[in-house]
Amino acid sequence: MSGRGHKRGWSRPDLRPAASDIKAAADRRVLRAEVARAALRILHAALPARVYRFKGMALYVPRGVFNPVFAVSTALVISRIEARGRAADLGTGSGAIAIALAKSPGVESVCAYDVSPLALAAAKINAEINGVAHKVAICPTREALLASAPYDVVAANPPYLPLDPRGEEDRSWCAGRRLEVLREIAAQAARVLRPGGVFYVTASTLTGVGQAAEILARHGLAPRVKACAATPLDRICLIEARKT
Fold this sequence. Notes:
By secondary structure, the chain is of the alpha/beta class. It has one domain (16-243): Vaccinia Virus protein VP39 (Rossmann fold). Helix content is 36%, strand content 26%. The protein contains seven helices and nine strands, in the order H-E-E-H-E-H-E-H-E-H-E-H-E-H-E-E. The longest helix has 28 residues, at 19-46.
């Protein structure tokens, strides 16, 4: 902070946050993230593979695929997204967001993209169950994602805990200590959106909503927080970022 305090509003040295305070805040955030990781592991271990009802959809969620039914973040995306034209869902998982997009009258088609074959199989089944298979294309590769670009709308509910995954299951909720997953998804969204297109993505106070917005801005996406919802451990925010 020294030498640049006047640019950030710290005009008095005694009001500048001490390095120990900054470290303590970071440590508390990591601790909460570890608690969230443990809670998500327990929840997903307890949930059976079956068909769930969620936001007017029937979703088959097998073990090994992120279950959106109890996720505040997924519900936030579905309830607040403004969909139209050609859309893509990055990291589709069970396909909940892709299906919700496809059900919107203003959406022509949806590319449901994921790197997990199990997730894509579930998304395909769920698109059929919910009667939108004709509008949802299963996109297993980046080439498939690019083939249908550019998109008017791109959505993502990515892993957001600022932790490195310890095992395969953690990949559903751990974004890496430097938020590597968010950085990659932001780059993908910027690449496949048309100029003026909109990227909807979730972030958490554990992620650092401001940090997430900075990542988006570096990729030519102008971010603003559209809505937030509280959980016992954090606040989940939906960021709307328009490609400039």
